[in-house]
């Protein structure tokens, strides 16, 4: 275990233990014991839907750049689901890197595979921000904690800056010029190649709109998953609270300071849902179930990874 991974694990365990202690462990057990399995089953079914949509949106992006050389459908699905499984143990950027490199083995130029992964991630984050931005005004009466609006604003600004590189030749040239100024040849070559590949999406407006729409649908389904889990625990919080808070929690989980969002998810659910009316024990139980649901969605990737031991060496 590397030092950075060990530090992230310590932070994850520490945060989780603190939130559990502050939420009354006996109350958490009591809230979990009475969970309605029918609602949990509904949430599990929705996981199958959102993972399928996530795979399809990436394939759509990939096909736009490589219409003649796209790998077989089964190979692309395998890379996607294995990278999802790998993301349980490494930061999302490392899982994305694995996805790009693994795909490059199928006669896809590395810059093109990396560009498809970057656009997939960018549109995914943008969809999270859009769903939260639409729902937050309706949830304002629930007492939104300070800092939430700033997080959303920063996310939107980052997406706008990244989108400018795709849609604006001037913005792309500025990025390449900045890389040249660093005077490290490999940095310039990688930046120039990747920027050129990403810029090709500027001609595929329909694909970008379609993938963004799919991404928004994925976020709506994730909100529905959380709502089902909350209903299973008997949490009496308006549906609009889930629509406003779950996308923000998804953003927080992706911050690579813990393992797979463990700890940060527990803190975020408590910080957001308790002021909205949930009890602290129920909010903690909801956070654990939500993370467990995400891990469950990677089970196909785990099975594919286990059935192909020759390629394990490629995983980060």
Give the mean pLDDT: 85
Number of helices: 14
Instruction: Give the H and E element order.
Output: HHHHHHHHHHHHHH
User: How many β-strand stretches?
Assistant: 0
Proportion in β-strands: under 5%
Describe what this molecule looks like in 3D:
- Helix 3 packs antiparallel against helix 10 (205-232) and helix 5 packs antiparallel against helix 6 (110-139).
- It is built from 14 helices and no strands.
- It has one domain.
- It is an all-alpha fold.
Structure keywords:
single chain, 316 residues, mainly alpha, 14 helices, 0% strand, globular, disordered C terminus
List the helices and strands and how they pair.
Blueprint lengths: L2 H20 L2 H9 L3 H29 L7 H14 L5 H13 L5 H30 L8 H20 L1 H13 L3 H15 L5 H28 L6 H15 L10 H13 L3 H17 L2 H9 L9
Helix pairs in contact: 1-12, 2-13, 3-6, 3-10, 4-5, 4-14, 5-6, 6-7, 6-9, 6-10, 6-11, 7-8, 8-9, 10-11, 10-13, 11-12, 12-13
Can I get a quick summary?
The protein is mainly α and 316 residues long. The chain is built from 14 helices and no strands.
């Amino acid at each position: 275990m590397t030092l950075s991974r060990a530090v992230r694990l310590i932070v994850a365990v520490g945060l989780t233990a603190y939130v559990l202690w502050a939420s009354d462990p006996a109350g958490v057990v009591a809230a979990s014991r009475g969970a309605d399995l029918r609602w949990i089953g509904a949430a599990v079914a929705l996981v199958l839907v959102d993972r399928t949509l996530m795979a399809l949106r990436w394939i759509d992006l990939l096909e736009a750049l490589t219409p003649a050389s796209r790998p077989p459908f089964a190979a692309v699905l395998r890379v996607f689901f294995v990278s999802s499984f790998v993301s349980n143990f490494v930061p999302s950027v490392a899982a994305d890197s694995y996805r790009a490199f693994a795909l490059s083995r199928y006669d896809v130029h590395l810059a093109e595979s990396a560009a498809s992964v970057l656009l997939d991630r960018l549109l995914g984050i943008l969809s999270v921000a859009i769903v939260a931005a639409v729902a937050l005004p309706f949830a304002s009466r629930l007492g939104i904690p300070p800092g939430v609006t700033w997080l959303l604003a920063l996310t939107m600004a980052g997406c706008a800056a990244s989108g400018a590189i795709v849609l604006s030749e001037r913005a792309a040239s500025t990025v390449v010029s900045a890389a040249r100024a660093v005077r490290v040849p490999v940095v310039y070559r990688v930046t120039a190649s990747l920027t050129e590949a990403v810029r090709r999406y500027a001609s595929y407006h329909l694909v970008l709109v379609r993938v963004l729409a799919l991404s928004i649908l994925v976020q709506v389904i994730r909100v529905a998953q959380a709502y089902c889990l909350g209903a299973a625990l008997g949490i009496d919080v308006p549906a609009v609270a889930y629509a406003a808070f779950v996308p923000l929690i998804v953003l927080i989980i992706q911050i690579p300071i813990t393992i797979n969002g463990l700890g940060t998810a527990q803190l975020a659910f408590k910080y957001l849902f308790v002021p909205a009316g949930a009890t602290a024990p129920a909010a903690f139980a909801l956070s654990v179930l939500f993370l467990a649901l995400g891990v469950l969605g990677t089970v196909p990737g785990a099975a594919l990874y286990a059935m192909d031991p020759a390629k394990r060496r490629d995983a980060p």
